[in-house]
Fold this sequence. Notes:
The chain is an alpha+beta fold and about 400 residues long. It is about 35% helix and about 15% strand.
Amino acid sequence: MKERVVVTGMGAITPIGNNVEEFWSGVKAGKTGFDKISYFDATDYRASLAAQVKGFKATDYMDRKTAKRMELFCQYAVAASKEAIEDAGLDMEKEDPFRVGVCVSSSIGSLQIMEKEEKRLLESGAGRVAPMLVPMMISNMASGNVSIAFGCRGKSLNVVTACATGSHSIGEAYRSIQAGEVDVMIAGGTESAICPIGIAGFASLTALTSADDPKRASIPFDKERSGFVMGEGAGVVILESLSHAQARGAKILAEVAGYGATSDAFHITSPAEDGSGAAKSMELAMAEAGVTPAEVSYINAHGTSTHHNDLFETRAIKLAFGDEAYRVPISSTKSMIGHLLGAAGAVEFITCVKSIEDGYIHPTVGYKIPDEELDLNYVPGEGIHGEVRVALSNSLGFGGHNATLAVKKFEA
């Protein structure tokens, strides 16, 4: 028998709140985090809006010396992990450190230090490049720094699957516990890529919206959608085997019941046009969770606000759910916080857990104009209050990476 896996703690740094309580309160209020980019002058860029984290101070979570040796994506990871560990009441002094693992991943790492040191290389020569460039740049340092900060000596992983990174990280952590390799995994995603090369690169790919009205910028499933808004932040959860959580008397927030992962094998940026890859990912997650489409209460969509994603994800839901596709509520958290890239799936997983806890499904904020082929229930206008027993969270990444997590209300 595989171990059942439960969620016992959560932490978040987002554009609408720097902890889970603030984030979820923002979600319930329909708050959006979009504004003009302030990190640099984006006047001449195709995209001028972003969803930046506000008021974050690394020294609230670590000492100044430690903070200086981390780039922002790692600072976010450690901060969100600290909240999640405290929320779970996890005392590392009482744990076997080799039975506590980490999979807090970033899809990009630090573009900022690459920009900075490339400039130094060109202006001052190779001998002036900072010796800490590489360890501050590489994406696995999120998991590395979390492991160091909290003394976790079990497996330490970094999953890189573009926009599916956060979901795959939680999924692979879930598998590690099921396999009996660890008792506890600190899992999730982190990202901070709002910088000149990040914005310019995604804009050149025509992935970012050029809209300058924050209210009509990130509008998933809307006919006038024109690309995503870059966001940043981190989402981290504590996953435990049920037996371990019960043995230490932990509060259980929800159960991870299924995980589907597939590849489109189609195109480096576009999802499969028929939605078949994402549909199979949902089908696998539901099958493992032992639920039918009729039993799914909510789908937290990848919902990027790009033309192709929203269209093809809609097709995928229709393939996986059949007639039930027209019943199940579907909404996109990116309508409030933008696209957090490698952190997106993790923060959206947290949204699913909170939806189960509070019995609330948030709307797709900003959705106004229906698109003819996008004819499902994207929860326009007001949110939905009522019991949420099973939620699916979808993430679809460049390269054709698909991930679906099935979360259930916990029942002993």
